[in-house]
TrEMBL record:
Residues 3-126 form the VOC domain. SUPFAM superfamilies: Glyoxalase/Bleomycin resistance protein/Dihydroxybiphenyl dioxygenase (SSF54593). This is VOC family protein. Pfam families: Glyoxalase. InterPro entries: Glyas_Bleomycin-R_OHBP_Dase, Glyas_Fos-R_dOase_dom, VOC_core.
Length: 132
């Protein structure tokens, strides 16, 4: 294996999901194509070209019931930043809901937020480089 390409997140509606991830979080849409009956929508952070999120519209009752619950209350992803305070303020200004208080530790600064469906993410600025 070489890399992870996409994290899959179930969505209720493509347009509302694109609007949230693009306009509130700052992702870019880099794939939006249709091959009926499917639509492929992939978003990514502009500086990270090799990893993204595949927004997948739920197509069954079971999938619809699991929108926002795919990780059973645990974070589905960690998003790193070089400037926590700037990103934190930008996301709050964009109406992103932070679900846990902003925490500063010796090695990191972080806070939990959710997308429009309740999927939890963690915004993190590492204070030191991680050692392999």
């Amino acid at each position: 294996m070489n890399s992870i390409g996409r994290l899959v997140i179930l969505v209720r509606d493509y347009e509302e999901a694109i609007e949230f991830y693009r306009d509130k979080l700052g992702f870019e849409v880099f794939v939006d194509s249709e091959a009926p009956p499917l639509r492929f929508v992939h978003v990514r952070l502009p500086k990270q070209k090799d990893m993204g999120i595949w927004l997948l519209q739920a197509s069954s009752e079971v999938q619809e019931q699991n929108i926002g619950k795919q990780t059973a209350g645990q974070p589905c992803a960690v998003i790193y930043t070089d400037n926590f305070n700037s990103e934190y303020k930008r996301l709050i200004a964009n109406g992103v809901n932070f679900t846990k208080p902003h925490i500063t530790e010796a090695s990191a600064e972080f806070a939990h937020f959710e997308d429009l469906y309740g999927n939890e993410f963690v915004l993190v600025e590492l204070k030191e480089e991680l050692v392999d």
